[in-house]
Amino acid sequence: AKEASGPHLQFFNAGLQRRFAHQQALLSALRKAITEEALQVYYQPQYERVSGSNQITCMGYEALVRWHDDELGWISPGEFIPLAESEGLMRSVHKLVVKKVLADTPTLQTLNPEKPVRVAINVSASQFKHSKFVDDMNQQMKVAGVSGSAIELEITESLLIDDIEQTAKTMHELKESGITFALDDFGTGYASLGYLKELPLNRLKIDQSFVQDLTQDSNATAIVQTILALGRSLEIEVIAEGIETDEQLATLEKLGCSQFQGYYFSRPEPLHALRNAKETT
Ligand code: C2E
Ligand code: CA
Ligand code: CA
Ligand code: CA
Q1: What's the rounded Cα separation, in Å, for the pair 281 and 278?
Q2: Which of 62, 91, 98, 122 to mutate to test the pocket of ligand 1 (most atoms within 8 A of CB)?
Q3: Whose CA is nearest to atom 2 of ligand 1?
Q4: Average pLDDT per block of 10 residues along the chain, 281 residues long
Q5: Which residues contact 82 (CB under 8 A, 6 or more apart)?
Q6: ipTM score over 0.85, yes or no
Q7: Domain EAL, which positions (predicted)?
């Protein structure tokens, strides 16, 4: 039996070893990218139907971190964010993203001068719970000379599960600086809906999985309808993300949704590629 498992075990070890070596290479490249401030930020426009008009206009942007390494190529946030989390690098990643967003905010404002600019930044739960989170944000905004009203933070339902009191306290502190909040991936977590009205939430983001299933799955339709009704009764705005087709857009509009984000409108782009986006549909 020992002989029989030999080659198998060896293969397994070689696979593990390769994975380990890859993770180590990724980690040291990530540390370097952070130190050199080489992580980039792309922006995906968010749109709004002005009621009764045939125009859909840009109402803000979501900042999404991007990483390109000369040897490793493009590495998706889905791959390096969990690594940054497990290696304690998330605070640095977050601060770097915030720094770049704040530096880009005046340019984003000039793309759409009629409206005060708003940029949404994703915040992981571990970051949001960090004791220095509020101080870091306020300090960075002060240094950059950008008001909190230009910033929306996208948080997830996991923050509403374990320590709701602390989460609410942190949100209210940040709200004093003018920062607003969106609840990301809404509908995929297990937050008790009762908490929603206790929190200073501006926006619910309907998770893209529901949008993608919308045209072939009646469950998804029911969930989207429920989220829109919830938003109306709590007076919280609702945005649908991950819209890829005109059919999805039409269905969402029929259900009463008026805020949109997705490849159908625009992919996340580097700052220089963005233009004053106005669509007529
Ligand atoms: P998320 O916050 O839910 O972001 C939406 C993701 O969907 C983004 O992927 C975006 O590029 C993608 N997306 C946008 N429109 C469409 C569409 O029409 N169809 C499809 N299939 N996808 C679409 P991305 O940029 O790869 O980011 C993945 C996740 O990584 C984000 O999910 C977020 O959880 C996290 N992330 C990204 N940037 C940051 C950051 O700066 N900080 C933190 N903490 N997390 C980030
Ligand atoms: Ca997000
Ligand atoms: Ca999302
Ligand atoms: Ca997501």
Answers
A1: 10
A2: 122
A3: 122
A4: 57 80 93 98 96 90 98 96 96 98 97 94 96 97 98 93 90 98 90 83 96 90 95 96 97 97 97 74 53
A5: none
A6: yes
A7: 23-281
